[in-house]
Write a structure and sequence with these properties.
CATH superfamily of chain C: Lumazine/riboflavin synthase
Chains: A alpha/beta (646), B alpha/beta (434), C alpha/beta (140)
Radius of gyration of chain A: 31 Å
Number of helices of chain C: 4
Helix content of chain A: 25-40%
CATH architecture of chain C: 3-Layer(aba) Sandwich
CATH class of chain C: Alpha Beta
Strand content of chain C: 15-25%
Distance between the termini of chain A: 28 Å
CATH class of the largest domain in chain A: Alpha Beta
CATH architecture of the largest domain in chain A: 3-Layer(bba) Sandwich
Structural class of chain C: alpha/beta
Strand order of the largest sheet of chain C: 2-1-3-4
Oligomer: heterotrimer
Strand content of chain A: 25-35%
Number of strands of chain A: 34
Radius of gyration of chain C: 15 Å
CATH topology of the largest domain in chain A: FAD/NAD(P)-binding domain
Structural class of chain A: alpha/beta
Strand order of the largest sheet of chain A: 8-7-6-16-29
Distance between the termini of chain C: 25 Å
Largest sheet of chain C: 4 strands, parallel
């Protein structure tokens, strides 16, 4: 039982004290058993207060500390650190959340909020009174990282990790690397093309002896956790041997009778079952798409590099951290949205970029020359009725860039931008300015009054009530309508389910805290990068990839991890081995051992994750979780139910 | 402390102790590298530490900044010089840089100062407080602001009358008028430039009458009024101390404006204005807030939702370009603007106007590089030599850029950019050790 | 609730989970979604870790209701969580019935990490139910 507990109640500069009477809280708890000192503070997390706490703990020899402030997700570690610096074992610190769960949640009821804060602080005191010093469980960590997704973000992160000194497994689901950027020609900001950027990154990946690239590969199983993830990688064969002369390959492609829509070109062209992603085909080896291959054998007959005997392989790999860079999908409009899928000259922005790629001198779509292009912005983004409330960030800039490209490449192009307020943020503003100077026409509407696409008399019209000309109704006859589709999370995001990575309101992977821990997830050891976390342009993806690489690397760098010692413990007297705990445990953390002539359960601390699933299943109540014992919980309950003091 | 021309060795020199420089320094220090962090101001924490709350989560800025700042301040691998500038950075060879750091005297021995503020009370000189952006006064002996790091006094020697009152009041004798300017020669292997940005000075747009009309303030001044360490403890118009009830925001002040030499968008003003509008609705429930804008750039994660939330709360958004602001006799302001939706020029009266000032480059750092030039981009931000594949690289191998030194960006992006700079620095340093 | 009288509001103990539902409850505060201040939270690592005796203890000591903000299928510790938490609820309800207590005083719902609004809806309607029960009991 502790006798010298220090309690600090934070104003949070008004965030708490505007709704909770913090002085009243202090008075209500100062005479609780074991409380030696109680203070209020403007910012508990500020350096000056941390210093005060350290000297309090040292000078007054405090044996337990409670800070009542914001959510423990923000500052539990901060104050544990304070305890440690003062020489007090950090598990003698208990955090009370009186901001997110009190002052903010009950800003409508100051009396109620103050009363709740008092109860919560008392419960924290009850818990700390019973707290014990603990030492972390040390485990060896594997100095390797799995990077999932070999787009620009994944490749860049892999290079950085390898250069820092980690072993890297780069796992790409497709047969070719490069992700979305490989599908683009010249990129905004610089004159580099997608292919050139991918080439640069791919070369560095391949040169680095510490990066192993798997294509056609995905993680199908995961055991273990931070420091030691044991993943199973399924590698699908491309059914092509390494050596193949160019001529034979083309023959093999030519004879293949199967034609399917080419997803690399967003289905505007067809490809064979034997294919490569022209022009960004890395590795430079075709693959056979076994989902559509009819096994007719014609390719085998003309090209001896074809090899149908290759088998799917499963590899077991151990890594210390997993970095997810799985990217995004372009939004696919449902049939009928702005005429998509119904009117044949309505296409998406990604399709339009591929059309420009394939048309050299004149811009031709469906056999007709295109002069007037209407771009409809925010398709699938900023939806009023749909789920995608967010802005996709890159599309305004990308569209304007593409429109300028079309204008420079072909003669007589007229661009009409049907937008909802152009968002060319930062330096991209000059592109917007440039396009206006080139004579592009901008017409704007608001979310609730979008433009309308109509086909009549063999022509396609886009109609808008234009905000910029005092809501005049304007109509443009367009040869081509380009729907500026935003970014959505990957359709197949099964990796998130496998690793239990949470998603945000926008369904992209969610970080712990946008500013404090922007590339980490609540799953220890799993970091996120690039557009898998939310829409980003290339530079922003790179920054997030490099940050995620730094985080992943810092986890595994020392080769050892200190894990939370809050694991399950067995009461040896009460336990009569029945095996129920072992059945309930998702990590096989139990051993059956003999003790004093009977068989009992024993917890392996480095394997136990402290989830507590074993606790309720024990018929003799022989299991407790350190830091969450029956005594801890029940003494908190006893305090929380006490009568109001105010 | 007084020793002249010291020579010191570090792995990395980080110039600028704001949120981006701090992130880089921390990452590098955590990997075992020795870092020297040089900050021009008297406290680290940059502009963020002075903000109220941050979009789109409305976390208080101090709650995020102060613990980071304190982690930096006590990290065994980080040495901090505040009130100091890195001058004369020269590259001697790969992984070999030298810099002269100019440490201005604080006239206070930081280690001995307890931050008791008795010197402040004793000092007879009052001047304008730059950390409150001119909204309040401070003494010539002063602690920069309550959550400053280090939280120690400093003497503003320009305004000090050398009366000695502070020395007599100080209980720990930490005031030392014998301190002199010091030049420290440091040898480093790599440099991170995180020198941040400057705010646009609206005096450059005379038709807005900033500086003349008393109830026109900048967004940074409003930020201070909304911050927990705010000067007035409520929102007041500076002209007469009246609580405003009809506030206007003028977006793109000093951004997207070729006439003042800044054609680009500052990326943050729309969002911070929307945030301030939401906070004002909370602080002054009866007040009306109108935002005059050209385009609302709510592009980041959760931003558009935050914009929608402001619309739902009743913030008025007017698509219009403000031409002129004039002051009425009662201190109210007349805004003449082009209402784009209606297609006509209109006038509106507000009792307070906030100019949402933009982000300008801080060019000073480029002058510090002597042998090799640190190239700037067309907008005078630090040029990113490989912006697509290595955004932190600059024209000098071994010098990396973090945060808004390379262009406008918001806090999450600055932090990611700080992370990227530390990653590039790590691999550069590793090449040195191989 | 605006009057500030809170004593009549039923007291509810919420078992939240550190990684999934507690962040959602935090976010409810962030978004200023109000709910009765007599709702208290004890975070646990996983909703499958809640011992029936804790629930019984809370209800016997005077809590009007216990709400389990379960991990559901989002549980970071494994898919079996939903079934396991369900089993805890079933067992506790049986104990309640045996003791002649209303099993509806225990409620469970899966609360994902961004389910702030559902959380507030759940606790509000639960508080309403418990409030009515309280009145009925008081009259009896």
């Amino acid at each position: 039982m502790k006798k010298k507990i220090g309690v600090y109640i934070c104003h949070c500069g008004g965030n708490i004290s505007d709704y909770v009477d913090v002085e009243k809280v202090r008075q209500a708890v100062e005479n609780e058993g074991g409380v030696f000192l109680s203070k209020t503070t403007m910012f508990a997390c500020a350096d000056s207060n941390q210093k005060d706490m350290v000297s309090d703990i040292k000078e007054k020899q405090l044996d337990g500390v409670v800070v009542a402030s914001c959510s423990p997700k923000l500052h539990l570690l901060t104050f544990r650190g304070v305890a440690e610096r003062a020489g007090l074992n950090k598990y003698n610190y208990v955090h009370a959340n009186i901001r997110e769960q009190v002052s903010w949640a009950h800003s409508d009821n100051k009396t109620g909020a103050t009363e709740k804060a008092i109860h919560i602080v008392k419960a924290a005191i009850a818990k700390v009174r019973n707290a014990e010093s603990l030492e972390p469980v040390k485990v060896q960590s594997t100095k390797a990282v799995a990077v999932v997704g070999a787009g620009v973000a994944g490749m860049r992160a892999a290079i950085e990790l390898a250069e820092a000194g980690a072993e890297v497994f780069l796992i790409e689901r497709e047969f070719f690397v490069g992700g979305r950027v490989s599908q683009w020609d010249d990129l905004c900001i610089t004159d580099e093309t997608g292919k050139e950027l991918i080439t640069r990154l791919y070369d560095r990946v391949m040169q680095h002896k510490h990066v192993t690239l798997f294509t056609g590969a995905e993680i199908v199983e995961n055991k273990g956790s931070v420091g030691n993830f044991e993943i199973k990688v399924k590698v699908t064969p491309r059914h092509f041997k390494l050596q193949c002369s160019g001529g034979e390959l083309q023959k093999a492609i030519d004879v293949c009778p199967v034609e399917v829509p080419d997803e690399f070109n967003f289905n505007i062209t067809k490809r064979k079952a034997i294919y490569h992603n022209y022009p960004s085909e890395y590795p430079q080896l075709p693959a056979i798409d076994m989902k559509t291959c009819t096994r007719c054998g014609k390719c085998e007959a003309v090209c001896n590099a074809v090899d149908f005997s290759q088998k799917t392989e499963y590899l077991n790999i151990k890594v210390g951290s997993i970095l997810l860079a799985t990217g995004f999908d372009p939004y696919e409009p449902p049939k009928g949205e702005f005429g998509y899928g119904e009117i044949d000259n309505v296409i998406t922005l990604p399709q339009f970029k591929r059309v420009i790629h394939y048309n050299d001198k004149r811009l031709i779509w469906q056999g007709k020359e295109v002069k007037n292009i209407a771009y409809i912005y925010c398709v699938g983004s900023r939806q009023l009725n749909g789920d995608n409330k967010y802005c996709s960030r890159y599309c305004c800039t990308s569209t304007i860039h593409t429109a300028i490209t079309a204008k420079n490449k072909y003669k007589g192009i007229h661009n009409f931008h049907f937008n909802r307020g152009i968002r060319t943020y930062g330096k991209a503003e000059v592109r917007y300015d440039e396009s206006s100077r080139l004579g592009d026409v901008y017409l704007q509407s608001f979310e609730y009054d979008p433009p309308v696409v109509e086909a009549r008399d063999g022509q396609t019209f886009v109609k808008i009530k234009d905000v910029l000309t005092a809501n005049k109704e304007l109509e443009v006859a367009a040869d081509l309508v380009v729907l500026v589709t935003g970014m959505v999370p990957r359709k197949d995001n099964s990796i998130a389910g496998l690793l239990k990575v949470p998603k945000g309101r926008d369904k992209f992977f969610n970080e712990i805290h946008m500013k404090l821990r922007p590339v980490e997830t609540v799953i220890d050891g799993v970091t996120i990068a690039g557009a898998s976390q939310g829409p980003k342009n290339i530079m922003e993806s790179m920054n997030s990839a490099l940050s995620a690489a730094t985080k992943s690397f810092s986890l595994i760098d020392s080769g050892e991890l200190a894990l939370e010692p809050t694991v399950a413990v067995v009461n040896k007297e009460a336990c009569e081995w029945c095996g129920k705990c072992d059945e309930a445990c998702p990590y096989s953390a139990f051993e059956k051992v003999e003790k004093d002539g009977k068989m009992i359960a024993k917890v392996i601390p480095s394997v136990c994750k402290g989830c507590g699933m074993c606790l309720p299943v024990c018929p003799s109540n022989a299991l407790e979780l350190i830091g969450l014992s029956d005594h801890d919980v029940e003494s908190m309950i006893d305090v929380l139910i006490e009568k109001d003091t105010v | 402390m007084q020793q002249e021309n010291r020579k010191l060795n570090f792995d990395v020199l980080v110039v600028g102790g704001g949120i981006a420089g701090g992130e880089s320094a921390l990452n590098l220090a955590n990997l075992g590298y020795k870092v020297l962090l040089v900050e021009k101001e008297l406290s680290i924490g940059g502009k963020m530490i002075l903000l109220s709350k941050v979009f789109p989560t409305l976390d208080c800025a101090a709650c995020i900044t102060t613990p980071k700042v304190s982690e930096i301040a006590r990290h065994p691998n980080i040495t901090i010089f505040t009130g100091a500038e890195a001058k004369n950075i020269t590259k001697k060879g790969e992984h070999q840089f030298e810099a002269v750091v100019l440490k201005k005297p604080r006239y206070v021995v930081v280690e001995d100062c307890t931050g008791c503020q008795l010197c402040e009370e004793a000092c007879p000189v009052s001047v304008t407080d730059e950390y409150q952006y001119g909204l309040a006064g401070r003494k010539a002996a002063f602690i920069p602001f309550s959550i400053a790091s280090p939280r120690a006094a400093a003497i503003d020697i320009e305004n000090c009358i050398l009366c000695g009152a502070c020395e007599r009041a100080c209980p720990t004798n930490c005031i030392d008028f014998t301190q002199t300017e010091e030049e420290v020669l440091v040898k480093i292997k790599s440099v991170v430039v995180a020198t941040g940005f400057n705010l646009f000075d609206p005096l450059k747009i005379p038709r807005y009458n900033y500086g003349k009309a008393k109830n026109i303030i900048t967004s940074m001044q409003m930020e201070r009024q909304l911050a927990p360490t705010r000067p007035y403890n409520t929102i007041l118009r500076p002209g007469d101390g009246k609580m405003p009830d009809n506030i206007a925001y003028v977006l793109c002040t000093g951004s997207r404006d070729k006439s003042i030499g800044n054609p680009i968008c500052s990326q943050i003003c729309c969002m911070y204005s929307i945030k301030q509008a939401q906070l004002l609705m909370g602080a002054l429930p009866m007040a009306d807030v109108t935002i005059y804008y050209l385009h609302i750039r709510a592009f980041g994660k959760g931003f558009n939702e935050f914009y929608a939330q402001a619309q739902d709360m009743g913030v008025e958004f007017v698509k219009g370009k403000v031409g002129k602001i004039t002051e009425k006799e009662n201190g109210n302001l007349m805004l003449r603007y082009e209402d784009i939706e209606a297609g006509v020029v209109k006038e509106a009266e507000h009792d307070m106007v906030v100019l949402s000032v933009g982000v300008l480059p801080n060019m000073e750092i480029s002058e510090s590089f002597k042998t090799e030039k640190l190239a700037l981009d067309p907008f005078n931000f630090v040029n990113q030599s490989d912006v697509l594949a290595s955004p932190a690289k600059t024209s000098i191998e071994g010098v990396f850029v973090a945060g808004t030194a390379s262009g406008p960006m918001d806090i999450p992006d600055s932090i990611l950019s700080g992370g990227a700079a530390s990653a590039e620095t790590t691999s550069y340093l590793r090449r040195a050790s191989l | 609730m605006a009057g500030g009288k809170v004593n009549n509001s039923p007291k509810i103990l919420v078992f939240s989970t550190e990684k999934i539902s507690d962040p959602a409850i935090d976010m409810a505060g962030l978004l200023k979604l109000h709910y009765p201040p007599t709702v208290y939270t004890i975070p646990v690592p996983c909703s499958s870790a809640i011992k029936p005796r804790w629930i019984m203890h809370a209800l016997e000591q005077g809590f009007d209701g216990v709400f389990i903000a379960a991990d559901g299928t989002d549980c970071p510790y494994g898919e079996s969580c939903t079934t396991k938490t369900g089993e805890i609820v079933r067992e506790t309800m049986e104990q309640l019935k045996e003791k002649g207590m209303d099993p509806a005083r225990l409620k469970m719902a899966a609360i994902c990490s961004v389910c702030s609004e559902p959380f507030v809806k759940h606790v509000k309607s639960f508080a309403e139910y418990l409030g009515k029960e309280k009145e009925v009991n008081a009259v009896e």
